[in-house]
Specification:
Blueprint: E1 7-11, H1 12-24, E2 28-35, E3 38-43, E4 54-59, E5 62-67, H2 84-87, E6 91-99, E7 105-109, E8 117-122, H3 124-138, H4 145-152, E9 155-159, E10 185-192, E11 195-202, H5 205-212, H6 221-235, H7 247-253, H8 259-264, H9 272-276, E12 283-289, E13 295-302, E14 312-313, E15 316-317, H10 322-341, H11 351-354, H12 362-374
């Protein structure tokens, strides 16, 4: 009987080999590692750099590392960064312009070859976020060629969630805790009396080829059953949830709810939520010159709809108040994103909750809007 190349069980040595094989193949391997009191995404060279034995303690506006006794590598929730940092960078040069001796200007597009990334430890919520950004940045009529080039060269190693955090709500958004298609390899971590191991499945031809070259053994029923069971248990242990209603309709029906003023009284309009969000994609252009004025560059950088100047027109900003800007962000993320891209812009990762300096919780706000609508006091139509 021929060997199944699409599924296997690997140990911690196999995980280390996976990282080294990907790096030896010319890829820049990015994975979770402990740095500066957090589990962050950074370039790694081997399995020993993964956060073995570390978990996290999460709440609204609160993040702390905590040691784990089981030595698990991926039993932690989403950190402050997402893979957007690499696929859709915070700042990127688009072109340079130089004044020649005769006064003519030469404009040169920045065509730096994109890196070939391998992402190790992509959570199901982040796997969905990458799919969302794929639709936004490479699936429509206005394709971002640089994003597409980075995305086409990326190798994704997804890790299913077995221990959700207190701010996770991916089940409400249909984005986890099981990995959906879109990965090259998927891993489910199991630590029990049978040892520390990972149930691995290939999701692409390249993934199958890489898996076949790792130290591995055939999938056994006990490992697969345990892995599936822990993912199923994780679905029942989400720390947060959205109200069980159509969120697109809820946002439409509550455009003039009093709750928007309530959240505005707490919101700093700092934009942390949009920076931490794995799907927010807005950018602006920034032109810079040297002191002589003979060299200029245009850079694209992330922008936030919480910035006062985000919607600036000659007569002033369109959304001058904090409640209008928070409402724009939330109703777009949970509602009008469907109209533009056919899905929600939220994947339930909970980063916006954790990294909000005043602890505003988007799930709490959605529940409050739903309660106000049920009480008959929310207004969806603009007042006459």
């Amino acid at each position: 009987m021929p060997e199944d190349r699409t599924t296997a069980v690997i140990g911690t040595d196999g995980l280390d080999a996976l990282i080294r094989v990907l790096a030896e193949g010319g890829r820049t391997v990015i994975g979770p590692t402990v740095r500066d009191g957090a589990i962050v995404l950074a370039e790694i060279a081997g399995g020993d750099e993964l956060p073995y034995g570390w978990g996290v303690e999460l709440e609204a506006g609160h993040y702390r590392l905590r040691p784990r006794e089981d030595g698990a590598a991926f039993a932690h929730s989403a950190g402050p960064q997402s893979w957007k940092t690499y696929l859709h960078p915070q700042r990127e040069r688009q072109w340079t312009a130089d004044r020649e001796a005769d006064g003519a200007m030469t404009v040169t597009e920045d065509d730096t070859p994109p890196p070939s990334y391998a992402f190790v430890g992509v959570r199901p919520c982040d796997l969905r976020a990458i799919a969302v950004q794929d639709r936004v940045l490479s699936g429509g009529p206005h394709t971002d060629s640089r994003y597409r080039a980075r995305r086409e060269r990326a190798f994704l190693v997804a890790v299913e969630c077995t221990e959700p955090g207190a701010t996770c709500f991916c089940t409400s958004m249909g984005a986890g805790p099981a990995a959906e298609p879109g990965y090259d390899l998927a891993l489910t971590e199991v630590v029990d009396a049978g040892g520390h191991r990972f149930w691995a499945r290939a999701g692409s031809e390249e993934g199958a080829s890489v898996l076949a070259g790792l130290p591995r053994r055939p999938t056994d029923g006990a490992t697969e059953t345990t892995a599936r069971g822990r993912v199923a248990e994780a679905a029942d242990r989400m720390g947060r949830s959205m109200p069980p209603v159509d969120l697109q309709i809820l946002m439409r029906d509550t455009l003039h709810a009093e709750r928007w003023s309530d959240v505005a009284s707490r919101c700093l309009t700092c934009g942390n939520c949009t920076m931490a969000c794995p799907t927010c994609f807005c950018t602006t252009a920034e032109d810079v010159t040297d002191l002589t004025g003979d060299h200029a560059e245009r850079w694209r950088r992330w922008e936030s709809c919480f910035d006062l100047e985000f919607s600036h027109l000659p007569g002033g900003p369109v959304r001058a108040s904090g409640d209008s800007r928070y409402r724009q962000w939330a109703t777009h993320k949970l509602g009008t994103w469907y109209d533009q891209f056919g899905s929600s812009g939220c994947v339930g990762c909970g980063r916006c909750i954790v990294w909000c300096p005043v602890g505003i919780d988007i799930t709490e706000e959605a529940h409050a809007l739903n309660e106000e609508r049920a009480a008959g006091t929310a207004q969806g139509e603009a007042p006459s």
